[in-house]
Amino acid sequence: METKLNLFKWKQYESAIILLTVRWYLKYSLSYRDIVEIMSERGLEISHTTIMRWVHEFGPEIDKRIRPYLKPTNDSYRTDETYIKVKGQWKYLYRAVDSMGNTIDFMLSENRDMPAVKRFFTKALTSPHNQFPRVITLDKNPAYPPAIQELINEKVLPKETLVRQTKYLNNIVEQDHRFIKKITKPMLGFRSFHTAEQTLKGIEAMHVGYLLSFLILAPQTILF
């Protein structure tokens, strides 16, 4: 893994400035051009394409670096997917929170089907802050039960895992989708699946522990 020094090597601007613009974009309902204007008022002329490159580079880096430090989630999964527009088409952002509303994991998918469900749960179970689920609460998406059963048969999930398809119990994750919509709405969709993935990793990282992420990467940033 790159050190902090190497991560910002050869950058034109200091790490505090880079990460401040990244934080604003990923945390608040701002466009790249909004941030250009804000930085210009502070005497810094930065192009919107430069800020975009920083978001694509450091969003995934923040997500990767904060995972070992996240607080453990509990064993009650609330799982659902929301829609994200990529190149004018709707894609599917799988998300899960625990019964206390803490983010378990997320995954952007081209498809809404059994293989996508299996990939999502496999990803969630590799994160060090997550427990194996005692219960998984779902909506009525028919792809979930057979995918979960296959994961149980493959011993990826415990055989005792209880599956509940109860919409009202899943309100907590549906409400949690709102922060994604709030941030992505000004973006007016993504130009590619890859840039959508990179940006969403940063947005989710801001949601679960944005101050922690900047203490890890550049402690002075939050004081800027």
Task: Explain the overall architecture.
With 224 residues, this protein is α/β, with parallel strands linked by helices. The protein folds into 2 domains: 4-69 and 192-223, no CATH class; 76-180, Nucleotidyltransferase, domain 5 (2-Layer Sandwich). Helix content is 48%, strand content 16%. A 5-stranded mixed β-sheet has the order 3-2-1-4-5, sandwiched between helices. β4, α6 and β5 (162-165) form a beta-alpha-beta unit. The longest helix is centred in the C-terminal third of the chain and has 25 residues, at 193-217. The chain is elongated and about 60 Å long. The relative contact order is 0.18. The model is unreliable at 219-224 (pLDDT under 50).
Short descriptors:
5 strands, 48% helix, alpha/beta, single chain, disordered C terminus, 16% strand, 224 residues, Nucleotidyltransferase, domain 5
Oligomeric composition of the shown chains? single chain
Which value, in Å, is the CA radius of gyration? 18 Å
Question: Roughly what fraction of the amino acids lie in strands?
Answer: 15-25%
Q: Identify the strand order in the major beta sheet.
A: 3-2-1-4-5
Low-confidence stretches: 219-224
Helix content: 40-55%
Give the helix/strand class.
Answer: alpha/beta
Q: Predict the CATH topology of the largest domain.
A: Nucleotidyltransferase, domain 5
Distance between the termini: 26 Å
* Mean of pLDDT: 86
The CATH architecture name of the largest domain reads 2-Layer Sandwich
Number of strands: 5
